[in-house]
Structures are given as C-alpha cells and as structure tokens.
Design a protein that fits this description.
Layout (H helix, E strand, L loop, with lengths): L1 H13 L5 H16 L5 E5 L14 H4 L2 E5 L2 H16 L3 H7 L5 H13 L20 H6 L10
Antiparallel strand pairs: 1-2
Helix pairs in contact: 2-4, 2-6, 4-5
C-alpha cells in the first residue's frame, strides 16, 4: 500500500493534469468492470518467485497460477461510463470535468500514467489510441438519461 501511495505521489508530481481523485476513480472503474460487470478476458498471471516456501499441506487450488481479467481500452471506457453514472448520477459528467476528464482520451492518459509507475499493467496488444474517441461525453452522460423519482 505504501508503495502505491509513493507511486501516485511521483505520478502527480510529474503530470498535474489530473488530481488524485481521478486516478482513484479510474482504478475503481477497472475493479467495477472486472468484479461487477465481468468484462475482460481472463489471463494467467505469472507469479514472482516466492520468498517463502509453500507449506507442505497446500491445496491444489493454492498452487494454481493467479487469474486476472484484462480489458481493452474501449471496454474500460464503457465500464467507467457505467460506473460514473452509478456513482454520480446526472452529475457524472460534471464530476469528471472537475477532474479534468472531458474525453475518453483522458482515461487513456490516466491509465498509461499508472502503467508507467507500475500501478496498472498492459498487454502487448494494448495502445493508448484504443482510448481515443470511444464515445462523446455529451451523448454518453446526458442523452437518454432517465431520472427516476420514487413513488411514480
């Protein structure tokens, strides 16, 4: 945890376009995409050499490689959109704009900044351009937004 905080502080010193809240939000959006929306392809993660020996009574499940989900830039942008609407409702676009996020390319900038400091990973097929023009913010956050009022 301390390493992540240090990495975020280095990142914020180097690139001041987005506040800490924007980075945290994108990481939460990634977790939401994987854990709630079940987006992405499951991939096997190579474990580093263990520092401690495994206990002799370790189960087969404990010995299996770790699994994690990998999302494309487009999938992550779509998931962040849904997450933002769930979190902030009709104010989602305004909250994102307050953090300097006005287009999907901003999500890409945030993701690639976090990749550079080791807080996120990318595959060989990933590129920053996958975040370009995934959707228009004015349409994605305002068009067809339905305000539900209890009792109606």
């Amino acid at each position: 945890m301390e390493e992540e905080i240090y990495a975020l502080h280095r990142l914020l010193d180097r690139d001041r376009r987005y506040p800490l809240e924007a980075y945290i939000f994108v990481r939460e959006g990634l977790a939401y995409a994987s854990n709630v929306l079940n987006l992405g392809n499951e991939t096997t993660v190579e474990e580093p050499e263990p520092e401690l020996q495994l206990e002799l009574d370790a189960t087969q499940e404990e010995l299996m490689p770790l699994k994690e989900r990998h999302l494309t830039g487009q999938e992550l942008c779509d998931a962040i959109r849904v997450y933002a609407i769930n979190e902030f409702g009709y104010m989602a676009r305004l909250v994102l704009e307050k953090w300097g996020i006005t287009q999907t390319q901003d999500f890409g900038n945030i993701v690639y900044n976090m990749i550079e400091v080791g807080l996120m990973k990318k595959s060989a097929n990933d590129c920053r351009e996958h975040f370009n023009d995934v959707y228009d913010f004015s349409n994605a956050f305002e068009r067809d937004y339905e305000l539900k009022i209890s009792g109606s």
